[in-house]
């Protein structure tokens, strides 16, 4: 799927209960989800910056920051951390619908 930045921009929370066959489902912040100790959250801001809230070693989220883009014609979301020593993270965008973002590791 070829997604546009407007379709991807938002504050997304991983709804792991909805995952299947290597596909990760994300819902907008505030979407009702079952209780969980911690959930991955990905803020894709309209200005092209992002904050990736991943679980840290001490159960806190260090919040990796960087820039995000959609690779034209490839349907891939690219997260490039601000840390020059860190590599980019790529996701294939399976679907981008109002209220639901579906990604697969690329």
Task: Describe the secondary structure blueprint for this structure.
Layout: H1 5-8, E1 10-14, E2 23-28, E3 41-44, E4 49-53, E5 64-71, E6 76-81, E7 89-97, E8 100-105
Antiparallel strand pairs: 1-2, 1-3, 2-8, 3-4, 4-5, 5-6, 6-7, 7-8
> Per CATH, which architecture?
Beta Barrel
How many independent structural domains? 1
Per CATH, what is the topology? Lipocalin
Helical amount: under 10%
What's the CATH class label?
Mainly Beta
Question: How would you explain this protein's 3D organization?
Answer:
There is one protein chain. The protein has 106 residues and is mainly beta. The protein has a single domain, classed as Lipocalin. Helices cover 4% and strands 46% of the residues. The protein contains one helix and eight strands. An eight-stranded antiparallel beta barrel has the order 1-2-8-7-6-5-4-3. A hairpin with a 4-residue loop joins strand 3 and strand 4. The longest helix has 4 residues. The radius of gyration is 13 Å and the shape is globular. The protein starts with a helix and ends with a strand.
